[in-house]
Amino acid sequence: MTDVADLVPVVARRERLLAALHESPQAKCDLVRSLEVSRSTVDRAVRRLESEGLVERRESGYGLTLLGRLVFEEYRTFTERVTGLLDASPGLEALPADTPLDPAALVDANVTVAERTMPYRPGDRHLELMEEATHVRLLSTAVGPRYVNAVRDAVVERGTRVLLGVTTAVAERLVTRHAAALDDALATGEFELRELADVPPFSLGMFDRPSGTSFGALVYDEDAPRVYVDNDTTAAIEYGERCFERYWTAAEPITPVAELSSD
Hints:
- This protein starts with a helix and ends with a helix.
- It contains twelve helices and ten strands.
- The protein is of the alpha+beta class.
- The chain has helices at 4-13, 15-23, 28-35, 39-51, 66-87, 89-92, 121-132, 145-156, 168-177, 179-187, 234-249, 257-261, and strands at 55-58, 61-64, 110-113, 135-140, 161-166, 191-195, 203-209, 212-221, 224-231, 252-253.
- A hairpin with a 2-residue loop joins strand 1 and strand 2 (61-64).
């Protein structure tokens, strides 16, 4: 039996051919046309894949064996996850090595990176998703005036239901600098504020919009937004739901804000 370390390069080198056969069995002449390679190249590739038990001859040409289909699907899942990790690497560099991050949440994600001329692009994407949502769940490790005003406007002006969990440091900042905006939001009954028992590795948002739910993660580097990742795949939403519930259920309610300012 071929060792995994030997098989993976074989699959990687012949990924396009395997992808074509994953769609449906094909004759060699069809593979030559669709892949735009020579007949000899197809012959060599098919022989090697046959020897590995990944491809078999059929009446209609060549197709994947069960092993071939399963190996290719696992390889494709692996490459999609690694691609997501590489796309998000600027943000991953700012996170602790033991951050419990599911790579599946990064597959097909939108990645917004801060640039020298546009340092607030990641935060802007976070606020953009909030504007479109009817229900928002947030975990925040840092806040600024624009963020606070966006939450206040979402609740007071648009009637958005917002659950906001903040770290102790952020809670103190909100009370001392933004008490009026928080009181306005709390007075609507559509806003709930909690102090987190633990500090999450990144700010998180779950946005329920008319088009569906999205997960968003805002990564800071020395209090400056560095990368924003948002995704609406099932895997990303499930990961975001788990993260939010973990921190939210352990958090302590803060209401009214005046109680904090008197501590």
